[in-house]
Amino acid sequence: MTEFAHIRTHVDENIAVIELHRPDVLNALNRKMVTEIVTAMEIYDRDERVRVIVLTGSGRAFAAGADIDEMANDDSITLELLNQFAEWDRLALIKKPTIAAVHGFALGGGFELALSCDLLFAADTAEFGFPEVNIGVMPGAGGTQRLTKLIGKTKALEWLWTGERMSAKEAYELGIVNRVIAPELLYEETMRFAKKLAKQPPLSVRLIKEAVYKAVDYSLYEGMQFERKNFYLLFSSEDQKEGMTAFIEKRKPRFQGR
Ligand code: CO8
């Protein structure tokens, strides 16, 4: 396996495990880390030993979102030219089953990453949310699309507008999470399920996945193109600079609506 800086990987029987590993910043997703996650997923997707891919976080979070320090000074044109979200489109092309095992925070891009997986197992201490609105932006990697498809427009708007965090139990009740598990058993239970799934006929599992997403995601691509233009646009606003600067300076932001 390739050497990675921000993730750790291993294969246990026929389950590949990818662990986000920037614990000092709650696994905040910088661009290199996203590239590494997608690269590892693609390698395991083609690896004959592997039947299921599990994604998890080290330290006290799954991931607390995109790395705010990295993007605080971006502008709309830089983001358009970087085209970083093309990486996220590749995640949707993974053919094998993917399971997110989430403990602690799964916020912003971290929540989007968990929602990009096929199944989501959560520790009862997990907290999910889209706090982007609190720093003057919005989700950019599928959050507005995937959350709305899962829980409907009315509930999605409330969570996205308020930026409040939902508990694992709330996420379960909303149909976002498959299982809520005691934190000390999260990894073990996820692996047990993954190993059970790995015993199912791989081709059936693969083609069922493909068919289910045809039903769910028919217009996801169009939605995500639209979402990302809006995400880029917000980087022209003063409120984005204010929100992210305030976060970095550990003070309350003053938003002015422009
Ligand atoms: N980016 C950079 N650093 C972060 C982030 C982040 N998203 N989250 C936490 N950290 C850092 C903190 O700055 C802190 O670093 P230091 O020790 O050097 O001060 C360290 O992680 C620990 O964090 P806290 O001390 O703040 O820990 P608390 O337990 O007090 O608070 C919270 C935890 C509530 C999670 C808090 O850290 C927080 O609010 N984080 C930001 C959450 C957020 O706004 N996320 C959304 C980011 S925007 C986004 O995700 C846009 C998605 C676009 C597409 C995705 C592309 C990858």
- The CATH architecture of the largest domain is Alpha-Beta Complex
The CATH topology of the largest domain turns out to be 2-enoyl-CoA Hydratase, Chain A, domain 1
Low-confidence stretches: none
Distinct ligands, ions and cofactors found in the model: octanoyl-coenzyme A
Gyration radius (Cα, Å) is 18 Å
Helix and strand content put the structural class at alpha/beta
Number of domains: 2
Q: What's the CATH class label of the largest domain? A: Alpha Beta
Shape: globular
**N- and C-termini, Cα separation:** 47 Å
Q: How many distinct helices?
A: 12
Tally of extended strands? Answer: 10
The H-level CATH homologous superfamily of the largest domain, spelled out, is 2-enoyl-CoA Hydratase, Chain A, domain 1
Protein name: Enoyl-CoA hydratase
EC number: 4.2.1.17
Pfam family, one: ECH_1
InterPro entries: ClpP/crotonase-like_dom_sf, Enoyl-CoA_hyd/isom_CS, Enoyl-CoA_hydra/iso, Enoyl-CoA_hydra_C
Mind explaining what this structure looks like?
The chain is of the alpha/beta class. It folds into two domains: 7-198, Alpha-Beta Complex (2-enoyl-CoA Hydratase, Chain A, domain 1); 202-249, Lyase 2-enoyl-coa Hydratase, Chain  A, domain 2, CATH 1.10.12.10. The protein is 47% helix and 16% strand. It contains twelve helices and ten strands. The chain has helices at 31-46, 68-71, 76-82, 86-91, 109-116, 143-151, 153-162, 168-173, 186-198, 202-216, 220-234, 238-248; strands at 7-12, 15-20, 52-57, 61-63, 98-102, 105-107, 119-123, 127-129, 166-167, 179-181. The strands form two sheets. It has a six-stranded mixed sheet, with helices on both faces. Strands 4-6-8-9 form a four-stranded mixed sheet.
